[in-house]
Amino acid sequence: MDYDALDGLEDVGPRVVVRRLQALKDRADFTLENIDLSFANSLRRTILAEVPTMAIDLVEVQANTSSLADEFIAHRLGLVPLNSKSVDDVSYTRDCEYCEQYCEHCSVTLDLHARCTGDDIMKVYARDLVVAEPRPNEWVGMPVITDALGLGTLICKLRKGQEIRMKCVAKKGIAKEHAKWAPTSAVGFEYDPHNKLQHLDYWYEEDPEKEWPKSENAKWEDPPQDGEPFDYSVHPSKFYFDVESIGNLEPDAVVLQGIKVLQQKLALVIQELSGDDRNGDADGFGGPRSPDGLHGGADYGVDQGYTTPFGNTGGQTMYGGGTTPFGATPYGQSGWQ
Asked: Which residues of 168-201 are buried (b: 16+ CB within 10 A; e: fewer)?
């Protein structure tokens, strides 16, 4: 993405300064200025948990004679990063108008078939996942391979005569539902590196300067002067971000998607406050949602945070129970109302 066009803009309102991007293909190091702490932290939380990506969600085991259990391999497959470029072309499973479980409009199918015929141990990597056609676009669903040898994530090992044959179905989701949909491995976040605002009370034995070394972000701000009076009216307005992508999305795309999702959530709040009863959708105010969230549906299709992967809306467990072991909740109700 070309950021040179942003040069020369007037320093009014929120301001972004990209410190390192071209040299770090998987990281975006930038600062946000002229905003408050709540907005900066909201963006951080949105990037971590609500940016939609693709990940393997269903695994149909056709053959597995390896030493690993079916569930173990399925879990490893779910954590293999998949390319999520133009993931907006993929529908959420529950919103798909063409199927009830999965189809080419809401999922990507990957086939895995490996058999060891030699005496040496055979290693099965992410490169062995074959993407089936058709799919929503040419990028989505491809395993992310970044190592020099072009192997990708190690899935399992096979000895002579062992075989695995599986059909994997990747769906669109968010990390709030499961960490396998996380677009980032970490999001660095810091403000006031010199602790001028005294928001941190360092515990130390002898010298806090030696025991709590300053981060590299301290070079971007002036240190406090000796005898400088404390200003109680000052609030943090400059925040340092270091977004590290796992490879399924480019780091700048992760940030832009986070901003988009945050806009959708704010639009939903405005819609509620304005009294507009129109239902939101994934392309409007609905925002990102987990693939197996509300089947029955709460207002606007938004996951209320207490649903299970089995489609329950909080009133019952997958086993049908709606009460606690003591018969009722501490608030006198037998379940969520």
From this structure: bbbbbbbbbbbebbbbbeebebebbbeebeeeee
- Give the C-alpha distances (Å, rounded to integers) separating 141 from 19, 54, 130: 31, 7, 10
C-alpha distances in Å from residue 64, one per residue of 11, 112, 146, 156: 60, 11, 27, 11
Q: What b/e string do you get for 303-337 counting C-beta neighbours within 10 Å, with b at 16 or more?
A: beeebeeeebbbeeeeeeeeeeeeeeeeeeeeeee
Q: Give the pair of three-digit tokens for residue 259.
A: 């901003």
Q: Has this prediction a pTM greater than 0.90?
A: no
Gyration radius from the chain CA atoms: 24
Any idea which residue has 């994997």 for tokens? 168
pLDDT tens, position by position, 151-198: 999 999 999 999 999 999 999 999 999 999 999 999 999 999 998 888
Q: Distance between CA 323 and CA 306 in Å, rounded? A: 15
45: pLDDT confidence band, cut at 50, 70 and 90? Answer: very high
Q: How far is CA 117 from CA 157, 166, 247, in A?
A: 13, 18, 33
Q: Work out the burial of residue 206: count CB atoms within 10 Å of its CB; fewer than 13 is exposed, 13-18 middle, 19 or more buried.
A: exposed
Over residues 284-296, the pLDDT tens digits come to: 445 555 555 444 4
The sheet that has 15-20: what strands, in order across it? 15-20, 27-33, 238-245, 184-191
Cβ burial, residue 144 (10 Å; 0-12/13-18/19+): middle
Give the separation between CA 189 and CA 43, rounded to whole angstroms.
Answer: 10
Contact in structure between 132 and 110 (CB atoms under 8 Å): yes
